[in-house]
Write a structure and sequence with these properties.
transferase; Polyphosphate kinase 2 family protein; 308 residues; alpha/beta; PPK2-related; Polyphosphate_phosphotransfera
Length: 308
């Protein structure tokens, strides 16, 4: 690795390592603060966000051209935790041909006729691309536990719905993620950890600003009443699906700008570690380029004579 690369990794590590969980059976969500700023003020944070945008754009071009690796970014979090705005900010300026955002809402009847991973598998990124999941297959271990009626809608045979179903789903997801990483997909999982107080302020802000009214519904308040249940389930998810090959990043999300520093830095550092580069041209192609150049230059000269 080059000196420049080591410097970049070192520079960003302070915004990554404190929030990485890669084997979290002792993980306790309450011990992870939501208002962390990492020793930065907002101006410093915005400068890092802008630097990371440029780095991400450069890496994405090489990722696309090399066409070997793919990157899957998963964003989970409570309503108003900042998932949508993080995607918009972090990927600003990235070539849209090289990345795709998929938002997973309530399953359709067709999706419910398949296994719980089916619809997300269809949206996995191709080699050379970045796929961004706004919510993901982890909803099938989250919403289905908070709302048992949702699990019933999945039409599973009754004998398969046992007390072990969540452990089994965790095992299936971890095995699936291992499979993906062994086939060249880098998995980056972010849980945007927002406080209940900050969510309340953001909900009130949505009500105050007409441009944000569309984001709000009474359903948000209904789910907020189940806050502690959601937190307990998220803790269980992180504990059982954090691995060395697909760790979770528990991102302090009360300050949106710092959440973007953490997420952007993590993505950039992961791309840097892939040693991406534009494909090298072999000798035969270089000889062909010379012939093409000669033909094009000759065409230009001929045009000038004809015009005279």
């Amino acid at each position: 690795m080059s000196k420049k690369a080591r410097t970049l990794a070192t520079e960003l590590d302070g915004f990554i390592s404190p929030f990485r969980i890669d084997g979290g059976h002792k993980f306790h969500l309450k011990s992870h603060k939501t208002k962390v700023k990492g020793g930065l003020d907002k101006a410093d944070g915005e400068a890092i966000i802008e630097q990371n945008r440029k780095r991400l754009s450069d890496f994405q071009e090489k990722l696309y051209a090399q066409d070997r690796w793919s990157v899957l970014v998963l964003l989970q979090g409570m309503d108003a935790s900042g998932k949508d705005s993080a995607i918009k900010s972090i990927f600003e300026g990235v070539n849209p041909q090289g990345c795709e955002v998929t938002s997973f809402k309530q399953p359709t009847s067709k999706e419910l006729d398949h296994d719980f991973m089916w619809r997300t598998v269809l949206a996995l990124p191709e080699r050379g691309r970045i796929g961004i999941f706004n919510r993901s297959y982890y909803e099938e271990c989250l919403v289905t536990r908070v709302h048992p009626e949702v699990l019933k809608a999945e039409k599973l045979p009754a004998r398969l719905v046992t007390k072990n179903i969540w452990r089994e789903r965790f095992e299936d997801i971890s095995a699936f993620e291992r499979y993906l990483t062994r086939n060249g997909t880098v998995i980056l999982k972010f849980f945007l950890n927002i406080s209940k107080e900050e969510q309340r302020e953001r909900f009130l802000d949505r009500l105050e600003q007409p441009a944000k009214n569309w984001k709000f519904s009474m359903g948000d308040v209904t789910e907020r009443a189940k806050w502690h249940r959601y937190q307990a389930v998220y803790q269980d998810i992180v504990r059982h699906t954090s691995t060395s090959y697909a760790p979770w990043y528990v991102v302090p999300a009360d300050h949106k700008w710092f959440a973007r520093v953490v997420i952007g830095s993590t993505i950039v550092a992961a791309l840097e570690a892939l040693d991406l580069h534009f494909p090298r041209v072999d000798g035969a192609a270089l000889d062909e380029f010379k012939a093409v150049r000669k033909a094009l230059e000759g065409e230009g000269k001929g045009g000038k004579k004809g015009g005279g």
